[in-house]
Design a protein that fits this description.
- It is a single chain.
- The chain has 526 residues and is of the alpha+beta class.
- The chain has 3 domains: 2-123, Immunoglobulin-like; 132-221, Serine Threonine Protein Phosphatase 5, Tetratricopeptide repeat, CATH 1.25.40.10; 224-525, Beta Barrel (Porin), CATH 2.40.160.
- 22% of the residues lie in helices and 52% in strands.
- The protein has helices spanning 2-22, 80-83, 131-154, 158-171, 176-188, 192-205, 210-223, 253-256, 349-354; strands at residues 33-38, 43-48, 55-60, 63-68, 88-93, 97-102, 106-113, 116-123, 226-236, 241-252, 262-279, 285-302, 307-316, 319-329, 333-344, 357-368, 373-386, 389-407, 412-427, 430-431, 437-438, 446-460, 463-474, 480-489, 495-506, 513-525.
- The strands form 4 sheets. A 16-stranded antiparallel beta barrel has the order 9-10-11-12-13-14-15-16-17-18-19-22-23-24-25-26. The chain has a 4-stranded antiparallel beta sheet with strand order 1-2-8-7, with no helix packed on it. Strands 3-4-6-5 form a 4-stranded antiparallel beta sheet.
- A hairpin with a 6-residue loop joins strand 25 (495-506) and strand 26 (513-525).
- InterPro entries: TPR-like_helical_dom_sf, TPR_rpt.
């Protein structure tokens, strides 16, 4: 708008200057009279001379240009915007030219006469819109935005969909359809507490809506408060037998004590160990038939921007420690890093006898490259010790996987390459009473490359199974087949029971013995 205004003003000023120099007597020419009027329905501006005048009129958008065959003289033209407020926004004038900038939504009709003109201002009826029309257009735009959000969700752009849906709800908090879709977006982003609140809000707007009921039930199933009891039997060929019972659970502190965004995780583990010969810290062999226990308490906090922190306390006989980890989540990836100090470690039989502990630093990352390809990588640094001897072995770990989803509907089937490697860089040795060298912790290097096929599916609405079959090749130890199978049954919404069994090679102890396991679990959701 400014470009045409200044061009017209420059033209006006140049023309005025030229005519002033050319006709000095112009100052004595008759001056125009101005007459302004306004009311609620419209306004008018009249310009007239005592002698005949010819007027040229041109309009471009809101700019109305008037050129006269006689000079304007000195009428109070600068008062036009103030006196016609709401009809004229601005005025520019020169020797024989006048430029009016009309207000938004105003039209002007120019009526010429022999000695001047009259301009009638009125609302531009072409710009007037009924409330019904505006409401219909808003509804149409809401539909467009909603289906755009659906498309973004389907293409994996969940954050963009979330922003669009949040805007829709800011304009219309009673939009049940957008509330339900935003709940799904928050759930997919891992913001399950926000998703739960949205499911509750959606059910207030549309009670008993099946999709909302199912969404809330799914969220409670996966994230709600629960108590779990596991019992497994592990038998290492030519070595030990362990019976492990674990009680664990999750309590949402947001409901318990108003701690929004926080949960309490806890576990208590009891191991019944039977082995005829195990090495003690002094190198003397002895049997072990007894129980070992460890406990863990974790405070988990979900931050607003898809971040999560965990603070943990560990306790076992002769060992107390702590840990901290932090995670960042995006639509298609998650990164976690953490540290643990004096964490009880039962990976070695020697640790069961002598109060094993581990200090650890780690970094893990998972990336969903596409709906079918998932990649994970991780690395860590470990220091192992026993009670009274903190630094007996050090190692670096590398882990990773590349998984391809073969079938996303029906039986969920996938094939994966897995890497599990630990490189021992230092292992302390001592002399026993006979003067022979021994390692108090026989940590061993392993580099296991595995191929795995996994199938997961529902047999019925309440019975689910999972099968994993593969082969593990240890470049530094013994290779062999591995596999696992599990079966879960949910007789009602609160109770789940299951059975499981597995076979693998144990190489972390340096024995490469086969490990067979069988057990079951019970989950109570409340």
């Amino acid at each position: 708008m400014c470009g045409p205004i200044w061009r017209n003003l420059l033209r006006v000023l140049l023309l005025a200057a030229a005519l002033t120099l050319a006709t000095p007597a112009a100052a004595q020419a008759p001056s125009a009279r101005i007459d302004l009027a306004r009311d609620a329905a419209g306004a008018s501006l009249a310009l007239g001379w005592p002698v005949p005048v010819v007027t040229e009129v041109r309009q471009e958008g809101r700019e109305l240009s008037l050129a006269f065959s006689r000079p304007l003289g000195t009428p109070p033209l600068e008062s036009i915007p103030e006196r016609l407020q709401g009809w004229v926004d601005n005025v520019l004038y020169g020797y024989d030219s006048l430029l009016l900038v009309l207000a938004e939504g105003v039209s002007a009709e120019v009526l010429r006469n022999g000695n001047g003109l009259r301009i009638a201002f009125s609302p531009d009826r072409r710009s007037r819109r009924t409330e019904e029309t505006e409401a219909a257009e808003r509804a149409a735009q809401r539909r467009i935005d909603y289906f755009t959000a659906v498309t973004l969700m389907d293409s994996g752009e969940v954050r963009q969909a979330r922003g669009l849906l949040a805007g829709l709800l800011a304009r219309d908090p009673a939009d049940a359809q957008s509330t339900a879709l935003l709940a799904q977006a928050e759930e997919r982003l891992g913001r399950w507490r926000q998703a739960m609140r949205l499911y509750d809000r959606g059910l207030e707007l549309t009670p008993d809506e099946p999709s909302l009921v199912a969404g809330k039930a799914r969220l409670l199933h996966d994230r709600g408060d629960r108590l779990q009891v596991d019992h497994d039997l592990f038998r290492v060929r030519n070595a030990d037998v362990q019976r492990v019972t674990r009680i664990s659970g999750v309590t949402d502190l947001g409901r318990a004590i108003g701690g929004a965004g926080s949960s309490l995780l806890y576990s208590l583990e009891d191991r019944q160990v039977d082995v005829d010969v195990v090495q003690r810290l002094d190198g003397a062999p002895a049997p072990l038939h007894g129980s070992r226990r460890r406990a863990e308490l974790t405070l988990l906090h979900d931050w607003p921007e898809l971040e999560q922190s965990r603070v943990s306390l560990f306790l076992a006989r002769g060992t107390a420690g702590a840990g901290y980890s932090h995670g960042w989540r995006h639509e298609d990836s998650e990164t976690r890093t953490g540290i643990a100090w004096n964490e009880p470690s039962f990976a070695f039989l020697e640790g069961l006898v002598g109060g094993g502990r581990r200090d650890r630093l780690f970094l893990q990352h998972e990336e969903r490259l596409s709906p079918r390809w998932i990649v994970t990588v991780g690395a860590g640094y470990n220091r192992y010790g026993l009670a009274g001897a903190r630094d007996l072995a050090r190692s670096a770990t590398v882990e990773g996987s590349v998984r391809y989803i073969l079938n996303q509907e029906g039986p969920l089937a996938s094939v994966a390459y897995l890497l599990d490697a630990e490189y021992v860089g230092r292992r302390a040795e001592r002399l026993n009473d006979q003067g022979a060298a021994f390692a108090p912790l026989p940590a061993a290097t392993r580099e296991v490359h595995g191929l795995q096929i996994a199938i997961d599916d529902q047999l019925t609405d309440y019975v689910r199974y999972a099968v994993q079959l593969g082969y593990a090749y240890d470049r530094r130890g013994k290779s062999g087949p591995q596999g696992a199978v599990s079966l879960g049954w949910e007789p009602n919404d609160n109770l789940e029971v299951g059975l499981r069994a597995s076979h693998a090679q144990s190489t972390a102890r340096g024995t490469a013995n086969a490990v067979d396991a069988a057990g079951g679990y019970l989950i109570w959701r409340y």
